[in-house]
Amino acid sequence: MLLSSSCSIITRDNIQLLRIDNAFAIAEISLFGGQLLSFIPRQDQRERIWLSQAASLDGKQAIRGGVPVCWPWFGDHAIKRQQPNNNDFPAHGYVRTQQWQIINTVDNASGSQVTLKPQSSLGAGFAGKAELTLIVDVGKHCSLQLLTTNTGDESFTYRCALHTYFAVNNVNDCAVSGLSGKYLDKTRGMQEFSTPQSYRFSEETDRVHLSQPALVKIENGNEPIEVHSTGHDSIVVWNPWQAKSIAMKDMQDEGYLSMLCVETAITQGQVVAVGETHVLQQIIV
């Protein structure tokens, strides 16, 4: 297809990237996984997105970093939880290791809009008939909209996340604000706890916050990051800390220090009726 003037295709290792370079920002989206890998607003020239220096870009395994699209389930599939040795159902669904197609690119007064679709929305482990679309707007801010449309003749339930890895100066010095209420702690057997008043990091963190804040802020020294969300039922906060960073082949041993995941998510299940579309949106500021 004909790309807009701000867009071009480049190759890195074995994957193709859609590069957006307009008056407001520079961004890169991997067509493998439909995954935003970089967003740098021109107003401050500061990278918002973290990508592992050890990430595999072989076009086969999921990319560590960026904004993975987790769909139509989040985390382990229910069958995988019951059968730990069953490898037929990849963690976080199957679209993040598919090739995505560029449907449209448009430049406008506020930036550039890119529309992508995966090779297929059908796969083992999901019985629904759906059309999945990702719309990325790159301007002063970066908006990601994940649209799930029910094209079948029965309603279905799905789970998903925009699993964003944010680039931070040092996670030891970071704090998160805007979260409240209860969360489920994956590092403690999914027990329920109250959100800390001073939300800082000193150990592995994997929390599903059962709330729907419109705005979460990452206090990152003099370089704060805002995460605006709609259409979600949860915010997931994750950092693997040192031991898991060392264990991951696609992450440097000290990689955990420069990243923090704040994920706009549906973890409790979203029902989509016949003919309806549900939109999960995250805006990065």
TrEMBL record:
Family per record: Belongs to the glucose-6-phosphate 1-epimerase family.
GO molecular function terms attached to this record: carbohydrate binding; glucose-6-phosphate 1-epimerase activity
InterPro entries in the cross-refs: Aldose_1/G6P_1-epimerase, G6P_1-epimerase, Gal_mutarotase_sf_dom, GH-type_carb-bd
Catalytic activity: alpha-D-glucose 6-phosphate = beta-D-glucose 6-phosphate
Catalytic site: H163, E263
GO biological process: carbohydrate metabolic process
Keyword GTP-binding among record annotations: no
Superkingdom per UniProt: Bacteria
Organism of this sequence: Paraglaciecola hydrolytica
Keywords, ordered alphabetically: Isomerase
Regions crossing the membrane: none
Record carries keyword Cell wall biogenesis/degradation: no
SUPFAM superfamilies attached to this UniProt entry: Galactose mutarotase-like
Enzyme Commission number(s) from the entry: 5.1.3.15
PANTHER family in the cross-refs: APOSPORY-ASSOCIATED PROTEIN C-RELATED (PTHR11122), GLUCOSE-6-PHOSPHATE 1-EPIMERASE (PTHR11122:SF13)
Name of the protein in question: Putative glucose-6-phosphate 1-epimerase
